[in-house]
Amino acid sequence: MIIEDPEKSPLLAQEKSQQRESGTLSSENIGEKLKSSYMSYKKSLQQESPQATDSILERLTAEKTYYTTRQTALNKGWMEEKDIMNMEKQVASHFQKEEKEKGPQTSSFKKRTGTIKRKKSEYELER
User: Fold this and answer.
1) Is 14 exposed, middle or buried (0-12, 13-18, 19+ CB in 10 A)?
2) How large is the C-alpha radius of gyration of the chain?
3) Which one of 28, 43, 95, 113 has the minimum C-beta count within 10 Å?
């Protein structure tokens, strides 16, 4: 069994950092913490690769941090659901803007294809 130096392991260092951050949550800094954890989650989601298990672990860690922080903000009444949704939209638009600047060939977001919205009259014809 190989024992790694905990200071050299980037995942352990990241987890310890997140634990310190989550311990210092307050009503004054919750917005910033929530936004940074959501951005970290979205970045790790973009960089995730099925071949690289470390990227999956990083995404899971970032996801856990974000949703834990989000739930804390909601439970303590520091933020409302609508405020969180607005922040998520801002971050999503930031990532979309970055993707447009990179160009279509390097886009990591996959667009949904094959989704067709039907008109009400089409549904009635099927009946």
Assistant:
1) middle
2) 19
3) 113
